[in-house]
Design brief:
The complex is a heterodimer of chains A (383) and B (356). By secondary structure, chain A is an alpha+beta fold. In chain A, 51% of the residues lie in helices and 14% in strands. The mean pLDDT of chain A is 95. Chain B is α+β, with helices and mostly antiparallel strands and 356 residues long. In chain B, α6 packs antiparallel against α7, α6 runs antiparallel to α9 and α8 packs antiparallel against α10. Classes of the chains: A alpha+beta (383), B alpha+beta (356).
């Protein structure tokens, strides 16, 4: 066994046997049902509804959800890590799935009332409903609290006006967790999370955004013109939205770190297999050694963060470090791999690395840019 | 950026730049490619710039006019077109004019000047070349700029010892050319070739000296495009960070923004200055391999880092195709790979160091 393989073995120690059995099922699903459809999804700009139903059937959409609402029994966030890793093994970018399982579902689980859970969770876990989280606005990206989408209480409803952009699953979402100002004078203490359902009058889907990569990921603008949403759709308490966002962002950042880490690992494995036996020169060997070392460091960092997430001890700064490191690592590793493969690779569309490179570039920006991660980390250092 | 006035251009170049800028604004849209733009450029006399008047060209030997054209294309983010014109106008035609015989001149130059045919060239020292066989020249070439639009292909030829010359081929057999879908330099009509027993076109092979000139020129023009591209990227980024407000103030006010832009500005000044020196010297003949290798290496690194950091400063908008920085990021990555990889250039430079 090579050293690289033994590291990989050690890596698998964080997964149980039951999870490894789940991995086999997911791997088969990715290979047999996702890979053949991926080109069509890139054309369409999103996966089809059948994909979501299949994810529901396989229990993927019920990861970490109580059984009574359609959850997968005994599942944990680690199951979602497995799904992400297996999808990246085939260099597919289907981030909308992680948005549902890793980003939106925790909001429903933590802040929805029993009545809301009964209403929404079964459809989400079956794949009948797609969810989205609407935070960013054209004028408010990094600076979340400066958002201007407004929700005004009017009897039993909120009347919502505003616009959101860069919303993953925005075009197709049936349930949008919208962050809006219920008290504009209160800055970060004036934000509420309100679930807007598809078909709500005044809620319009805006442009599908034309991205550099991630062609199978639905990203769009949303607009709200006097959209009336029942107060019964408020998640948690009014004006506590910013707190909720802050506490959930740690898991979102780990989810992204896992994805970037998996993308870098998958590409290293691919490039190594391409290079093996070709009489690689010293520069290629050293570049691969650099990649492998950084990837091992990233893996250790993200696995440590995952362990803390499991025990509820994950600090925002640790999540920020994992997100910062693994996304930047993805950029460096893919860049090195492009150079190793030479003109047989980039920018040809028939080479996996081309799409992987363009798909990966946004990871240093979304879910809090690298610069914002540095702000969080430096604050934790007390400076 | 007005930090340095470009002292290498005179008023004729400035006038030409104005007319090229107008041509680009009028003709280079999102679906432009070299096959559509080359004939249009001929109407404006651009394709015949360095072709002698007797063959329908303008007979201009001053290569700074080529530089102006490539820079204007790069300044609007049309990198594929810039590389296409660089290969045709800056690499192939000067070699044909200087090293080709009368037969070759008569057969090719008028059509090139008139925009009726386009030339592709692959003389990069990347191991790809044609080899002689009993019935003609054979070989496979991947990633040839202008490949699917060209009627004439100039390609390095030789044996296991290296390239000893360049074969001019008339591309007659459409089955030998396969267009390559690419995510960058998309306007350059890049294609792969499978050539079997092809015979040299009119005039026979160009010499090893011609190959050396073409290699040097290829690197020079890629360096010119890369620096101009980096300048444009910094300009777009500067405009964005002055406008975009985050946390209540323009992004430009943050220390991080200034740090990134300041470092790029310094590199632009230094690398730009070296490239301008190369352009001036080119008037006296092709530059030595080490000089163009250094130029291309430095310029490739600069455009890549400018594009990456420029995209980052654009935030989420940097990933959206409606902003030119997004495609520029994809295009920038090619410069360190194609036309001589960074590693090949560093190796050459190291070997040249020892020989002085």
């Amino acid at each position: 066994m090579t050293n690289h393989e033994s590291t990989a073995q050690a890596r698998r120690m964080i997964f149980s046997e039951e999870q490894e059995a789940f991995r086999k099922i997911v791997r088969a699903f990715v290979r047999e049902e996702m890979v053949p459809r991926y080109d069509a999804w890139q054309e369409a700009g999103c996966p089809d509804r059948a994909f979501w139903h299949r994810c529901g059937e396989l229990g993927i959409l019920g990861i970490d959800v109580p059984e009574e609402y359609g959850g997968m029994p005994g599942s944990r966030f680690t199951h979602s890590v497995i799904v992400t890793e297996e999808i990246q093994r085939e260099f597919l970018a289907v981030g909308g799935l992680r948005v549902q399982t890793d980003i939106c579902m925790p909001y429903f689980l933590s802040y929805a009332s029993d009545e809301q859970k009964a209403r929404w969770l079964p459809q989400l876990t079956r794949g009948d409903a797609i969810s989205a989280l609407a935070m960013s606005e054209p004028g408010a990206g990094s600076d979340v609290k400066s958002m201007s989408t407004r929700a005004v209480r009017d009897g039993d409803h909120y009347v919502i006006n505003g616009a959101k952009t860069f919303i993953s699953n925005g075009t197709n979402a049936d349930l949008v967790i919208l962050a809006a100002k219920t008290d504009p004078a209160a800055g970060r203490r004036g934000i509420s999370l309100i679930v807007v359902e598809a078909g709500t009058p005044g809620f319009e889907r805006g442009r599908k955004l034309d991205k550099l990569g991630l062609k199978a990921q639905d990203l769009s603008e949303l607009s709200f013109s006097d959209a009336r949403v029942p107060v019964a759709n408020l998640l948690g308490q009014e004006n506590c939205g910013f707190e909720y966002l802050t506490s959930n962002l740690a898991q979102e950042r780990i989810s992204i770190a896992v994805n970037s880490q998996a993308a870098a690992s998958a590409m290293l494995a691919y490039v190594t297999s391409q290079v093996a036996g070709t009489g690689a020169g010293q520069l290629v060997k050293f570049a691969l050694a650099d990649c492998a070392t950084e990837i091992a460091a990233g893996q250790a960092l993200v696995d440590s963060a995952l362990a803390q997430l499991e025990t509820g001890t994950l600090l925002p700064a640790s999540a920020a470090m994992a997100k910062l490191y693994c996304t930047e690592l993805q950029g460096r590793a893919l860049d090195r791999c492009i150079q190793i493969l030479g003109p047989a690779g980039y920018p040809r569309m028939d080479c996996k690395i081309t799409r992987a490179y363009l798909d990966g570039r946004v990871s240093r920006i979304y879910a809090g840019s690298s610069e914002i991660m540095k702000v969080i980390i430096s604050q934790s250092l007390g400076v | 950026m007005s930090m340095q006035r470009r002292i290498i251009f005179d008023e004729d170049h400035v006038a030409f730049r104005d007319s090229v800028a107008k041509f680009v604004a009028a003709n280079v849209g999102p679906h432009a490619s070299i096959s559509t733009i080359w004939p249009l450029a001929a109407n404006d006399g651009i394709t015949g710039l360095s072709i002698p008047e007797e063959f329908g060209g303008a007979g201009i030997e001053d290569q700074r006019f080529v530089a102006v054209l490539l820079e204007e294309l790069a300044s609007v983010g049309a990198f594929g077109l810039a590389v296409s014109f660089g290969q045709a106008l800056g690499v192939a035609i000067p070699a044909l004019v200087r090293f080709g015989g009368p037969g070759m001149h008569a057969a090719w130059l008028p059509d090139l000047a008139a925009g009726e045919s386009l030339c592709a060239v692959h003389c990069t020292d990347d191991g790809q070349r044609l080899e002689p066989g009993a019935s003609g020249w054979s070989g496979s070439l991947t990633g040839v700029v202008n490949g699917s639009a060209a009627r004439l292909l100039l390609v390095a030829a030789g044996d296991e010892n290296g390239a000893s010359g360049a074969v001019p081929l008339s591309i007659g057999d459409p089955g030998s050319v396969t267009r390559t879908p690419v995510a960058a330099w998309t306007q350059a009509d890049i294609a792969d070739f499978r050539i079997r027993d092809a015979l040299a076109a009119e005039g026979g092979l160009l010499s090893a000296e011609a190959v050396a000139q073409m290699r040097s020129d290829e690197q020079l023009w890629l360096a010119v495009i890369a620096v101009a591209g980096a300048r444009a990227i910094v300009d777009w980024t500067l405009a964005y960070v002055r406008e975009r407000k985050v946390f209540g103030q323009p992004l430009m006010r943050f220390d991080n923004t200034r740090d990134v832009l300041g470092a790029l500005a310094a590199q632009l000044a230094v690398v730009g200055s070296f490239i301008d020196q190369c352009l001036v010297q080119r008037a006296n003949g092709p530059l030595v391999a080490a000089q163009t290798a250094a130029a291309k290496l430095a310029a490739s690194k600069l455009i890549q880092i400018s594009a990456d950091q420029g995209l980052q400063l654009h935030g989420g908008y940097g990933y959206m195709r409606e902003y030119p920085i997004a495609q520029a990021f994809a295009d920038a990555r090619c410069f360190g790979l194609l036309g001589g990889s960074n590693e090949a250039l560093k190796r050459l430079l190291a070997l040249e160091l020892g020989s002085n």
